[in-house]
């Protein structure tokens, strides 16, 4: 018995490593949105703009998350990431005349999104990048292309069903995230982990009472284990995902907004959503209103 | 700058958690390490082997893996340590997360403490142990009255290094549910993207102060223990 427990512990440790690899929503072999890659795109842009440079180079580097099912996710064996953020990246690149194969996807975590943009390591960031005034002081953020809100993921047998129940409980999320700050303000003890998948396993094992982050991500996990997990509480924050760009190239803002607007009109935005978050059971939201670009 | 100064309470709380993790696991690892070292240099071969095995296992395992084991694998086996939350001493109680973090840090650090003490014991000439033996002391008596007091001098520098490493290793707990200094730094960075460098420097300063205090303490001990 003892020996078996130890054996199981060893297996659990191994599993913990591979867990990060599973837990995806919609990374089946779908090819994503059919983007129509523009030809001779470079001529559409004025000389000297960053868009023209990228179009002429024929490649672009985009920073996305690699650990958020449905938004930006790349499994250990995947060649390219998948998710709504990724599809939006493809739509933007297509407008520059760049094939999805010529996009270099770089993993950006919450901590390095601004440094990567400032140093020019990436040209664009689409990484569940909530628009905030503090971030806009150092980088540009166009959009939003998606608006979501924070919710709670609990075990199916949990009693928590309103925000008041959360006071005095332990709630996990990713270390340093805005969600964790918000839940602390609600009176819960924040428990930070490195990835969302570790957090889900804490909820399943009963080590914490709930997990919190943007509803879209939680629904992806709940859809995978509908018997064990459920999403509760109406969204209690508003996160507006924007496209990050460097302030060295302020001209990119208008172009990003125009391209997003175009994708709203020609149905690509909705298609991208349905192929990714939509598969996890998230209803297609209304198209958000874009912020005007700062006057340059 | 103002990101930290306008939230200075949070900054201090964060380092408070760091210090609490350090103090609890530091003490526990010294005790466990001393026991292990005594076993390792002792005459009972079973204990010697057991302590040797412990050191081999825990010194050779990355701290992160021990943390994953305590925080992710143990709850899977049903050990969430939530029972400690019901224990209340003088109005204080500790969380299961704090307990598991301290256990992980203690398991890891005590292997190094054990080896540090063993190096000190080995620095005492064999003749000392033989002399103690000759006057009829038992093994534990000779350890207590003859070997350890002399070894004590030699172990201060290596043990100070081990404890300094521990103070910084507490940062691993940041991604295992503890809102200590490193976790709070990440939260500040997330909220105040325009002040990253200052935030980083101020948190680094906090660690430097802690480590300086430990090394100052060790210098004082060294001077006190010096043979005139």
TrEMBL record, chain A:
InterPro entries per the UniProt record, alphabetical: Bact_solute-bind_prot3, SBP_3_CS, Solute-binding_3/MltF_N
Domain (Solute-binding protein family 3/N-terminal) ranges: 59-280
SUPFAM superfamilies: Periplasmic binding protein-like II
GO CC terms of this entry: extracellular region; outer membrane-bounded periplasmic space
Pfam family, one: SBP_bac_3
Residues annotated as signal peptide: 1-23
Biological process terms in GO annotation: amino acid transport
UniProt key word Signal: yes
The keyword Signal is assigned to this record: yes
PROSITE patterns tied to this protein: PROKAR_LIPOPROTEIN, SBP_BACTERIAL_3
Assigned keywords, A-Z: Signal, Transport
Source taxon at top rank: Bacteria
Family: Belongs to the bacterial solute-binding protein 3 family.
PANTHER family, per database record: ABC TRANSPORTER GLUTAMINE-BINDING PROTEIN GLNH, AMINO ACID ABC TRANSPORTER PERMEASE
Name of the protein: Glutamate ABC transporter substrate-binding protein
UniProtKB/TrEMBL annotation, chain B:
One Pfam family hit: BPD_transp_1
Residues annotated as signal peptide: none
Domain ABC transmembrane type-1, chain residue ranges per copy: 15-218
Record-linked InterPro entries: AA_ABC_transptr_permease_3TM, ArtM/GltK/GlnP/TcyL/YhdX-like, MetI-like, MetI-like_sf
Location of this chain's protein in the cell: Cell membrane
Alphabetical list of Gene3D superfamilies matching this protein: MetI-like
One GO term of the biological process aspect: amino acid transport
Superkingdom as given in the UniProt entry: Bacteria
Spans through the membrane: 14-39, 51-74, 197-216
Key words of the record: Amino-acid transport, Cell membrane, Membrane, Transmembrane, Transmembrane helix, Transport
Gene Ontology, cellular component aspect: ATP-binding cassette (ABC) transporter complex
Primary localization class, coarse: membrane
GO function terms (MF aspect): transmembrane transporter activity
Membrane-topology annotation of the record: Multi-pass membrane protein
Family statement drawn from the similarity comment of this UniProt entry: Belongs to the binding-protein-dependent transport system permease family. HisMQ subfamily.
UniProt-recorded name of the protein: Amino acid ABC transporter permease
